[in-house]
Design goal:
This protein folds into two domains: 91 residues, no CATH class; 138 residues, Leucine-rich Repeat Variant (Alpha Horseshoe). The protein is 70% helix and 0% strand. The termini are far apart.
Length: 236
């Protein structure tokens, strides 16, 4: 049954693959990525359809299937794997953190994989088990750029609910001088999301750090603020 699910997913992806879509998708990445060339809407349809076929499976079985897809390195297979993992969010338990951290370290090698996983499955896990916030802070010191980006973008969904503001600033402090532009964009994005419900606090943070903060991160952080605040923040 498990092999049939994986084979079915891959067959559908190959049938729906389009070279123009693949070429268009590649332009979003500086590094070479492995893509079939299937539109995101179709990938989501395949994920939902395959989940119906897996009805009744244990979470551990589904996580094993997720890993099989992730091993292929295809972006579309990763998106389906992360959708499958997110579908079992009601069953998450603390031990799943080890699984998720392992996936990040072994299989995430693009901003798209990082954000898809962190914005849904991993962000939901952290919201359920905030005791693991300290683990995100540890990731800020990793040599792996995707773990460093994950430290911030994992909090995007919780922050939209007004949660974890203290941790937002702690993680931003730890990543403040990171030289990687994708990490800078990650924590800048986090600050931007936090500013929607905590504008003054984020503005104060930016003003305190704007001399040292890379311009990329700063621009992301203030993007949704009123024009007068943006102008003050950009004035060095």
């Amino acid at each position: 049954m498990n092999d049939e699910v994986i084979d079915g997913v891959r067959l559908e992806l190959m049938e729906k693959a389009d070279e123009k879509t693949r070429e268009s998708g590649q332009r979003f990445f500086k590094e070479e990525v492995l893509l079939y060339g299937v539109k995101a809407s179709l990938v989501r349809e395949i994920a939902k359809k395959s989940l119906l076929e897996m009805d009744g499976m244990e979470k551990e079985e589904i996580f094993a299937l997720c890993e099989e897809l992730l091993k292929s390195d295809y972006g579309e297979e990763a998106a389906i794997a992360f959708e499958w993992a997110y579908s079992r969010r009601k069953e998450y338990e603390p031990s799943d953190f080890t699984v998720f951290e392992g996936w990040l370290g072994r299989y995430v090698n693009s901003w798209a994989k990082c954000d898809t996983f962190c914005n849904h499955a991993l962000g939901t896990f952290i919201e359920m088990y905030p005791g693991y916030l300290d683990n995100l802070k540890v990731w800020t010191g990793s040599e792996n750029r995707w773990l460093r980006r994950a430290a911030s973008v994992t909090l995007i969904l919780p922050v939209r609910k007004g949660l974890f503001l203290e941790e937002v600033f702690e993680i931003s402090d730890l990543l403040l001088l990171d030289a990687d532009d994708l990490v800078q964009k990650g924590y800048g994005w986090l600050l931007k999301e936090a500013s929607k419900s905590h504008q003054q606090e984020v503005f104060d943070y930016v003003m305190k750090n704007k001399v040292r903060m890379p311009r990329t991160a700063l621009r992301y952080a203030i993007e949704k603020m009123p024009e007068d605040l943006r102008r003050r923040a950009m004035d060095r």
